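The methods section describes the discrete structure representation at length, but only in general terms. An entry of this sort, consisting of the sequence and the corresponding backbone structure tokens, reads as follows.
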Amino acid sequence: FPVTIFNHYFSSWLLALGVVSIAILPDWFKDFEGKLDIQSLQSSLLEMFSRGKWVFIANLFYTLAIRFSYWMIDTWHGKAMLGRFGTGVTITESVLVITGSMAFVVYANISNAGKENVPDISRLNALAFWLTTLVCFSLSLIPSALWSLVLGTDFADVPGIIRVYAPAVCIFSISIVLSNYFAGQGLYHLSAFGSLSAFFGAVISGYFLVHFFGITGAAISIFCGNFAQLVCLLYSFQKSEKETTVVQFFTPLFKPYLLFK
């Protein structure tokens, strides 16, 4: 199962690399005679590979961190439980569209305005977290009867899955903002280290939790992985930013009323 995910990601990465290379070829022609600047071509390809490999590693290992729990549920508890858990995870993770949209704003702000824009990014981080929490909470309140009507009687426990998985999603919403914060500065390797932390945290804890607690254990293991990722990203933030402490960065998160000022 993990090998299949790796093959798909590697194939997608190679395809994306090829498409981007073809798309930017015209920029490497310096005159109307079609003379290709080989040195510029080599430099651009090396930069694409250097930055792209960290993005590839980050996405791959975070996907493995979550999907490895799928494999453990399937192995120890069967496909019926896996189907219910996968449905609950998919529904809950759909909330991350909100955070993902705001994270692109963070990326743009850092890329264009630099580190002086940290206060605004802090507010976006807090707003993304509380919106994610609110939507997850709202989804968990939908009665089981409605889920059974839409998905079938076997999925009556979807609200319970959403409730146990929501903390992991809320934690990850913060990591998405921080990852884009680093990406805006070209520090893609820091996001990759965070994803590696998520992978090891989820796999190590999941080996024990999923075996004994099933769906609840899988959700807790993913939370452990996401928490490890957040700690790693916060450590990197503190090391790279001397003027802004972690507490200052998350002040709007701890004091939501600041969002309305």
